[in-house]
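Support request from a user on the community tier.

User writes: "When I paste my structure tokens into the form, the page sometimes reloads and wipes my input. The last time it worked, I copied everything first. Here is what I submitted, just in case something in the input itself triggers the reload:"
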């Protein structure tokens, strides 16, 4: 088999018999087919986990924006309560000359 492009993953899909950009290999045992399917499923699972981690850490992710908006709204709700609290004392320092 000669691969012009596609690399090792394309070859593994060929051995596993996964339809797509490679034909099913007819000269491979059932054990190899099973092993290649497991390897490709493992890669897909790891890729999903990595992608989820990156999405959680992405400051531009939609979920992160929602969390920030919720925090902002909570702070806005708490700010008037703190201003109206007569027991709260402000620390005023005099400027040094």
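"...and here is what came back when it finally went through:"
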């Amino acid at each position: 088999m000669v691969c012009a492009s596609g690399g090792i993953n394309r070859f593994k899909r060929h051995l596993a018999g996964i339809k797509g950009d490679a034909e099913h290999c007819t000269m491979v045992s059932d054990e190899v087919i099973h092993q290649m399917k497991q390897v490709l499923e493992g890669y897909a699972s790891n890729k999903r986990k990595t992608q989820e981690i990156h999405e959680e850490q992405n400051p531009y992710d939609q979920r992160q924006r929602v969390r920030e908006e919720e925090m902002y709204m909570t702070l806005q709700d708490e700010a008037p309560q703190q201003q109206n609290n007569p027991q709260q004392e402000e620390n005023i320092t005099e400027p040094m000359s």
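Agent notes: The reload is a front-end session timeout and is unrelated to the input. The radius of gyration is 29 Å. Residues 15 and 26 are 9 Å apart (CA to CA). Escalated to web team.
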